[in-house]
Amino acid sequence: MFDFVRNIGASTLETIREMGRMFLFLFSVLRSIPTPPYRWNSFLKQMRFIGIRSLFVIALTAVFAGMVLALQGYYTLSRFGSEALLGPAVALSIIRELGPVLTGLMVTGRAGSALAAELGIMRIREQIDALEVMGIPPMKFLVTPRVEAGLLAVPILTLLFDVIGIWGGYLVAVRLLGMSGGTYFGGIESAVEMHDITTGLIKSVSFGLIVTWVCTYKGYFTQRGAEGVSHATTSAVVMSSVLILVCDYFITSIML
Amino acid sequence: MTQPGSSDDISRLNGSGRAPISLGERLVANGCITSQELELALRRQRSQSDAAPNMHRVGRTLVDMGLLSQASLLDCLYRQFAAERDAYQVSSRQQDAVIRLEQVVKILDGRRVLDAVDLAIPANRITAIIGMSGGGKSVILKHMVGLMKPDQGTVWVGDQPLGRLSNRALNEVRRRFSLLFQGGALFDSMSVFDNVAFPLREKTNLPETEIRDRVVRSLEQVNLVGMEGKYPDELSGGMMKRAALARALVTDPEILLLDEPTAGLDPIIENAIHHLICDTFMRTRYTMVVISHAVPEIFKWCHHVIALHRGKVLFSGPSREVNGSRDPVIRQFIHGDLDGPIQVI
Questions:
Q1: Do the beta carbons of residue B193 and residue B187 sit within 8 Å?
Q2: Could you tell me which residue, A78 or B127, shows the higher pLDDT?
Q3: Are B55 and B24 in contact (CB under 8 A)?
Q4: Domain B97-335, what fold?
């Protein structure tokens, strides 16, 4: 019994310590963003990796998310004779909720895991130590460009997700179910407000920060060889995904 | 001002008080070349460069002219080094030590890896640190460059205590160092050329043409010409170590730390790396610290030896004296006996 209580106490303390380390890491990353030298090449390289190379998976997810939303929405709304509201239902769901969340989760799976693994391998092969010995701050060189790219790429990907998702809904609603295109887009135009788009963008910036922060942190402090890299990658993906959903709830409740 | 590696420089540093014997004179004395061939090489070198001839340039010219093989040149350099090594005396003056550890304690995972370690690394010498695996050798190296901080005690580089320096000041001190990591620590995503050029591109404002020249020169020194475009995963273990050594040398450091430079290499490559280290030392006079398990071979290649066991310094002195040590742990370690105070089975 005593051991059980002691273990709980120890793991609680360790969790608090880990949170402290993570916030200190975030603080030093944010502090390094406005500090020269600005590594434009590294930033563009990461934009390509996180942004451009995620385009296909984002487009695929978006089109099917929009299509299934339209199918389910049509089925539900037709019960109440409100099929005309399908456009706004699809658009608002995607812009306010599904766009940022699914983009965040997809980027976590595709780019976040790779960020954690890449930095983890650099750590266990002593490449990060080599940078320190050369007097090159590894945080500025490795982490900052990745976080900056995440902050910009995820909102852009979210906007693309929104457009493609609404177009996917259009395919099902208009082409498949025979709804009028004017009704679909007219409803969207009158229902969607700037506030909805802003909410989606605030979420996407937050999720971009969460993914790159958590994944670079886990990779940067990898320990104990290949097993450590595998552990870091898994825990980076799990923690980022959970944090995205938790953060989504709080932002939604604040901005409603 | 004396040229690095010139015979004047060597006689000043070896402190033997004998008249300096240049590499060329040694080659003639050994019958490797005739005095006419030496004169020819010196003349050719003078005609090619305005810089004063030094032993390294003369040696290279002789190899280029086909008068001497690379192996004979390295052997002659080694003999020159061996004479200097045998004349080496430990200085008790604190200012002769470039790095000092005072009462350094480090505890990792509840184990006292360094237990009140006191040691001094002599300037402009090759020092070997030997000891059992897990005995704290790499931990010492990481303390010397500030990658690890001691739980107690102080690490001094020159007159600067590393633990009390700001990040900026620590980075300034680190400019004096280069560290060859055990696994090379080359960046996987960069070619050999870019790996070697990396510290110059990041830490200097040199134009790209100058960087290119220095990288090529550095790769020539480690015999890796033609490998510039290869990536680290396309290199053998020996090539990887040499590429990492080229990266360590390209910044022209004062202090070169080498963490097991010959680990996992066959005897021929091991010998080649030892010659390369000796060649680099004779040419540059960097302070070098080598961690090695190549015992007793490494005693041939260093002036000073520090033996560590269970976090404590058992021996610190000239390499010629370590074989005569009566400490049972050192004797067992040198001879690789299973029977003795160190029980592994």
A1: no
A2: B127
A3: yes
A4: Rossmann fold (3.40.50)
Say yes or no for a CB contact (<8 Å) between A132 and B142: no
Could you tell me how many CB contacts below 8 A there are between chain A and chain B?
46
Look at B203 and A136 and tell me if their CB atoms are within 8 Å: yes
A225-255 and A99-107 are packed helices; what angle lies between their axes, rounded to 10 degrees? Answer: 170
Average pLDDT over residues B228-239: 88
Which of B171, B185, B202 shows the shortest C-beta gap to A126?
Answer: B185
pLDDT (tens digit per residue) in A169-225: 999 988 888 888 888 888 888 888 898 999 999 999 999 999 999 999 999 999 878
Q: How confident is the model at residue A161 (pLDDT cuts 50, 70, 90)?
A: very high
Letter string b/e over residues A38-76, b meaning 16 or more CB atoms within 10 A of that residue's CB:
ebeebbeebbebbbeebeebbbebbbebbbebbbebbee
Q: What is the pLDDT of residues A103-118, one digit of tens each?
A: 999 999 999 999 999 9
Q: For the residues B280-300, what does the mean pLDDT come to?
A: 86
pTM for the full predicted model: 0.79
pLDDT score of B16: 38
Domain boundaries, chain B: 7-86, 97-335
Distance CA B256, CA B98 (A): 12
Determine contact: B145 vs chain A, CB below 8 A. Answer: yes
Contacts of A136 in chain B (CB under 8 A): 199, 202-203
On whether the CB atoms of residues B62 and B68 are closer than 8 A, the answer is yes
pLDDT at A182: 87
pLDDT of residue B144: 92
- Cβ contacts (< 8 Å) between A132 and chain B: which residues? 145, 147, 174
Structure-token pair, residue A172: 């099902």
**Cβ-based neighbours of A54, under 8 Å, separated by 6 or more:** A106, A107, A110, A111, A153, A157
d(CA A206, CA A203): 5
pLDDT-derived band at A59, boundaries 50, 70, 90: very high
The burial class, CB within 10 Å (0-12 / 13-18 / 19+), for B133 is: exposed
Q: How far is A159 from chain B (nearest CA, A)?
A: 32
What ipTM goes with this model? 0.76
Q: A residues 104-123 near B, CB within 8 Å?
A: 121-122
pLDDT of residue B172: 85
B14 — pLDDT class (breaks 50, 70, 90): very low
**Interacting residues of A139 by C-beta distance below 8 A, sequence separation 6+:** A28, A29, A32
How far apart CA A121 and CA A241 sit, in angstroms, is: 22
Both tokens assigned to A77: 């709304």
